[in-house]
Amino acid sequence: xxxxxxxxxxxxxxxxxxxxxxxxxxxxxxxxxxxxxxxxxxxxxxxxxxxxxxxxxxxxxxxxxxxxxxxxxxxxxxxxxxxxxxxxxxxxxxxxxxxxxxxxxxxxxxxxxxxxxxxxxxxxxxxxxxxxxxxxxxxxxxxxxxxxxxxxxxxxxxxxxxxxxxxxxxxxxxxxxxxxxxxxxxxxxxxxxxxxxxxxxxxxxxxxxxxxxxxxxxxxxxxxxxxxxxxxxxxxxxxxxxxxxxxxxxxxxxxxxxxxxxxxxxxxxxxxxxxxxxxxxxxxxxxxxxxxxxxxxxxxxxxxxxxxxxxxxxxxxxxxxxxxxxxxxxxxxxxxxxxxxxxxxxxxxxxxxxxxxxxxxxxxxxxxxxxxxxxxxxxxxxxxxxxxxxxxx
Length: 393
Ligand code: FAD
Prior knowledge:
Blueprint: E1 5-8, H1 12-24, E2 30-33, E3 40-41, E4 60-62, H2 64-70, E5 74-76, E6 80-85, E7 90-95, E8 98-103, E9 106-109, E10 113-115, H3 134-145, E11 156-160, H4 164-175, E12 179-184, H5 196-208, E13 212-215, E14 219-225, E15 228-233, E16 238-241, E17 243-246, E18 250-252, H6 255-259, E19 268-270, E20 281-283, E21 288-290, H7 301-315, E22 329-331, E23 338-341, E24 350-353, E25 361-365, E26 371-377, H8 384-389
Parallel strand pairs: 1-2, 1-9, 2-5, 9-20, 11-12, 11-17, 12-13, 19-21
Antiparallel strand pairs: 3-4, 6-7, 7-8, 10-18, 14-15, 15-16, 22-23, 23-26, 24-25, 25-26
Helix pairs in contact: 1-7
Bound molecules: flavin-adenine dinucleotide.
């Protein structure tokens, strides 16, 4: 019974759970284990840091050690959890000293997600970068800081994927003075999120910043060519580039849970109390698939904050069912600020574009006339709270 609550993961989900728990209980033995340094940083700041000239170290808001001390928890950073023994309630962990076993009384999986990689042809396919952590950001930052093969500091950067992260990096890197090329098999940016006319406005706004669009095409190959990269496209075209960044989506990190026979689908399956299919094991954040969200993963900040608070209460003995409110996401494209609150993908309905004073506002309305989502562009983003309260989750 004296075994600790163990949290695996030091991203927003792991640290937020520890903080929320400590607000309710200052004494319970608490351990946080992370494969990375566990330093505290806001991941959303990775996609607007280049224009602000922020270096990786400047993105760290607090060191792991000081945060662990403040929260009165035992931290094992740069420690990899290799296996969960569900019946024995122990973890097998590996660090620089070797492998050992740690017992838990409750376990929280906050293991995040990993960038999806598609196999590409070419001798430089291995040079394609993804940015989903501070370490990844440091690699891209170092590549941009290295002397350019051509005169001038500007680079040609190919971004694979015109989703939320691809569009944010396109805007940020263009603002930082680079020549950005976005390649996406869809016909328009943010195709999964926005109505067509809103996508068109974003495409125009980023084009005005100098972003070159290659829509309806995908990257097939990356080869070295005269100290640079030649990026081959599915439509037969090619782009000469210095850096290729893949932003084609994330896949929940479920391997550890899966190996322990926990139920997994698109993420680690959790019920309304965030419990996995095993008692005393919970999950939240990018690794989780929430019953409270209609069996969806929700890889955004707000769901994590709500989930961490509910889970802390459950861990303190007050079993708490999580009910997500409407959670609009702000897309960091200063060329055209966007706020989007999305309905469940299975929700029937249609977009209704606002006119006159409502231009730049789209409501997603179900067949009964109930508003289930919305998109706000530009100045309309100031109406986020008003629109959220008119939306039914
Ligand atoms: P992560 O941050 O991925 O943390 C996972 C942790 O688990 C890490 O510490 C890792 O080391 C550890 N781990 C994994 N496996 C193991 C193991 N076996 N053993 C030990 N440790 C392990 N959302 C928004 O709402 N708004 C935004 O503007 C926004 N912008 C974003 C911009 C970018 C560039 C990106 C990539 C994401 C953005 N997001 C945004 C999404 C949001 O940042 C994420 O949903 C959130 O940070 C995920 O946190 P997490 O703790 O679930 O996962």
